Amino acid sequence: MVQVLLNWFRQNARDLPWRQTRDPYAIWISEIMLQQTQVKTVIPYWQRWNRRLPDVRALARGRSDTVLKLWEGLGYYSRARNLQKAARKIVDQFGGRFPEKFDEVIALPGVGRYTAGAICSIAFNQPAPALDGNVMRVLTRLFGIGGDPRRKENNALLWGLAQELVWAAERRQRPGERNCSQLNQSLMELGALICSPRRPKCPLCPVRKHCVAWREDRVDQIPSLGARTRSTARRFAAFVFEKKGCVLVRRRSANGVNASLWEFPNVELDGRRPEARQLAESLFRARPLTTTLLHRVRHTITRYRITMDVFRVEFAGRKPRTIAHGRWCSLRELRKLAFPSAHRKILGMLRTIGRPATEPELRPINRSAILRDPC
User: What are the chain's domains?
Assistant: First the structure.
């Protein structure tokens, strides 16, 4: 089976940019970006990142704002912050040379067992297993492992099987070959292209005759991941406050979700439905002259369904108080800042800063239609 997987991968591997290099830094960046993100999404991000931050030292000395901006849109921003922490550790402890030992790689911030195995096998051709979601699905079906693969006993069994396969690949290796690298990638590729979660392409699978789930007609039952966590709805109101061609934004704290990213002033509704004017008054400590509904932003992240009503707010008389961590920015300056996805959608509306509110891009929308929306 191992040789079949190796042959299949050599003939069918996708031409991905990080497969054109053995640079552990570039492979590390790709592996972190690919966590919970599709390949087609990652490719342009990886290319931009490596043009701007081509090596460990460049990442270590880079500005945190630059790192977050390059990551903007990929989500799970702790990954980007951990990349920079790890780069600085590599510079401090290894002189800027990416470590090759598994124990040293797994000790880097943000690197777990899978990522360390992927880097050590792909970059250095070491016989380290790499068990991600795709590989987990392939192995549970190949070996007919029922139950939840995330349970301790099943998970340990899968790691053991992954280790045995990569050892077998190493034993078959001839001079000039990179069997450990290609075996792990073959399992990842099989899960991505053939052994998909739904409607797997079993007739095209190179190892189907070895597959217990296929022989026993249990492919749709394995792996058994249990019920999905129900999503939770969250509502926000966000405010676009413009003055002299600039817009007020604020920076999130250095801790928690979306740490250090920028956002438009906003408040979570927590089930309440107060008037926008009351919300703005509470947020800015001044009674607004007008609040105009501009848009409704919808965004889903992990288990949350976010709905954000966006208002233009104007004040007269007493000026509103200064927002903590706030900054007035022109449109050009805003585009240099890193925003979470929901707020990037608001930024995408602001093509007419400084123009009248009746310009098409910022024309008020049908308020009654919004209020009738059952979501």
Answer: 6-124 (1.10.340.30), 132-159+177-226 (1.10.1670.10), 232-372 (3.90.79.10)
CB atoms within 10 A of CB 374: 3
Q: Is 31 marked active-site?
A: yes
Residue 285: which pLDDT band, with cuts at 50, 70 and 90?
confident
Cβ distance 188 to 132 under 8 Å?
yes
Which among 43, 41, 98, 103 is positioned nearest to 73, based on CA atoms? 41
Burial class (CB in 10 A: 0-12, 13-18, 19+), 329: middle
Over residues 238-249, mean pLDDT: 89
Give me the pLDDT at residue 317, please. 63
Least Cα distance to 224 among 157, 132, 141, 147 occurs for 147
Q: 3-state SS of the chain: helix, strand, coil percent to 5? A: 45, 15, 40
Q: How do strand 266-268 and strand 304-315 relate by DSSP bridges?
A: unpaired
Q: Could you say which of 31, 72, 189, 281 is catalytic?
A: 31
Write down the pTM of the prediction. 0.86
How many helical (H) and strand (E) elements, i.e. helices and strands, does the chain have?
A: 16, 7
